[in-house]
Amino acid sequence: MSRETLVELLENLPAGPIANNLCSQVITLLQGCLNEFTGSHQTNMEAYKLEPKRVENLDWAPPVLSFKMARHGATVLGSPREHLYSWHINVEKMTARFEKGTFRLVRPSAAKLSKDEILEIVRRVCEHVQNGPLSSAAPGIFLTWKSGTEILIKPADLIPADGFKQTLAGRRKRVRSILIDEIKTIGWVVVSDKGAFVKFRKAGAGSGEPPSKP
Q1: Contact 81, 75 (CB under 8 A)
Q2: Closest CA to 200 of 156, 124, 143, 118
Q3: What is the pLDDT of residues 122-170, one digit of tens each?
Q4: How many CB atoms within 10 Å of residue 166?
Q5: Among 40, 153, 151, residue whose Cα is nearest residue 91
Q6: Using CA atoms, how far apart are residues 155 and 201, in angstroms rounded to an integer?
Q7: Domain-wise residue ranges, the chain
Q8: Paired residues of 201 in beta bridges
Q9: What is d(CA 53, CA 69) in angstroms, rounded to the nearest whole number?
């Protein structure tokens, strides 16, 4: 009955934006019958996603009910932006059609890291390495001493996980590359550059296995 009730309600409304005091009622009725409209499952749309806090700009242009809806897929991955979709529900033809809209900033973007800032981070790591394993300042989070001449460094831990997944991956790749270059300048060579950790050995220490190229 929700579809009939929805149509009856809409037919008694003037064309144009739907009054705020009626929005929740219209959304609830549409939620109850959305599955009856052809095309309503596009973009993985489900009736339960129709919530008053996510549905915006309800507009009635007989026989079409239109609204915008925020999708949060990107924000789950860390993006500061959410995507706005426009939906058009034709209550006469029983069809649902969507259009991709714009992006909207929902929180400040993660600050960009310049090459100089990355170099500063990496050079602090180099200082810890030069201070040696007995230094009280030597961290145990991103730098692990396997011996006095062998270390493991986890580049990903040098960059906080507070950005969009793709952006974060790019930053960590840059840090890894710069880290390897800078560690070489203080007399260490790469033994292994696979997985989360980069393994270094002090140049000239030797262990029977040749250092691998990064």
Answers
A1: yes
A2: 143
A3: 888 898 888 888 764 445 568 888 998 999 998 888 876 555 455 667 7
A4: 11
A5: 40
A6: 16
A7: 2-105, 115-202
A8: 150, 189
A9: 9
